[in-house]
Amino acid sequence: MKLIGKLIRYTLFLMIALSLFLSWKLWTNSGSKIEEQPVNKSEQIANMKQPKDVFLPVKLVYHDSKGDHYYSSKESLIQSMSKELFERMGDELPVEKSRKKIDPHLIKGSFDLSMSSSLSLAYYLKINEKEVPSHIKKDVTFRRILVSFSDNHIHFIDNENNQIYQTELLGDPSEVKDILRKEGNRFLPVDNPKMDLPVYYEFKNDITLKKYSYIVATQSYTMFSKAFFDDTQEVFSNDDHKASKNVSLMNAEGGTLDIMYDTGEVRFNSRFDSEKARDLGTDTIYEDTFFYLKNTGNALGTIRYFEGTPNRVTYRNYVEGYPIFSDNGKGRMDISRENKNIRISTNQETIQVPIPSEEEVVLESTDKIIEKLQLKGIDVKDIQGLQIGYTWEANQETKQVVDLVPEWYIKLKDKWESLSDVSKMLEKGVGE
């Protein structure tokens, strides 16, 4: 064990040294010294992301034959179940005639997969290489997929309009059940919400989760330039920012890319109208925004669709099935399309290599969190979202390592805040 520990420390030292060297090389070429290397967009960026690896469910709940419910956010399990569903999905996908509401927790012998936010059903079928029926328009959304073993059907649930689109689950369902029961799958007991909460299930007990540490990498400005600009041969340094250490690039069309030296924040602005969308072959906000994300390849790590509106999509890094929250856009990419413009904000710093850690954090159950919020004066009706996430924290020993700490997050007034930050704001009388 001592030898293993020494090897880990030695490897960590080498990786930190390499990261420091690369960061020094990057920033010695910043500001007025920038000369964008000519790279044609036709030279495809290696390992482009695939949409079906980003627009994935992030939660799974299994409903056993006794009526008990078990939650998992294990990424490999969710990916396996998603793959099985599309391989076994029937060709026809009619809308159910009755506009009834399905309560998955009442259907024994089933499981449901949940997206982080509502998503276009047509787009989801398209990226998973399934034919899109003509009656499913691009504005039809869903958030949950219910699979019932009692009638062998797959249900795509549109909660907003109480519509359900269903198709057959083909083949032997026992093979799907075997994946659920596979040894090593960790499930947490959950229950149906006792009150009107923006969550599908409550954690019945306190939850123990690991803390994580990751070596971080600073992505070069050229990576973002190649990913965001149409043609990097037409990109040049912005002379108005010669004296600054910040990276500032632009093109003749007025597109700009700015990278902040102190924080690593990345901001991109460019024209994006109907003509541009036709050129790219995109048709929805999901396709428009994913066009820019896919070009970053694997540089941003494991990233998932987190939230979407008609004009904006947020993507976040996920660790062990939980989203990362941070300051200055770290672990996140926000892309908005408005007034014939596309705006992107993200960060140069990305998590890369996990460092072994045995530290754990105990988080209180859902009902205890709700009780705390109510005692602080928050009305349950004002809570727009409630979930566990990992907070990006600076490591106290080195800037080349980041700590990820699990805690509860609450969405109030369209903004996600940690429970600790909400408590501090309420104590100071902010946001009342």
Automatic annotation (TrEMBL):
Record bears the keyword Transmembrane helix: yes
Domain Regulatory protein YycH stretches: 12-420
Keywords on record: Membrane, Transmembrane, Transmembrane helix
Keyword hit for Membrane: yes
Parts of the chain that traverse the membrane: 7-27
Pfam families associated with the record: YycH (PF07435)
Protein origin, superkingdom: Bacteria
InterPro entries in alphabetical order: YycH
Record protein name field: Regulatory protein YycH domain-containing protein
Organism name: Vagococcus fessus
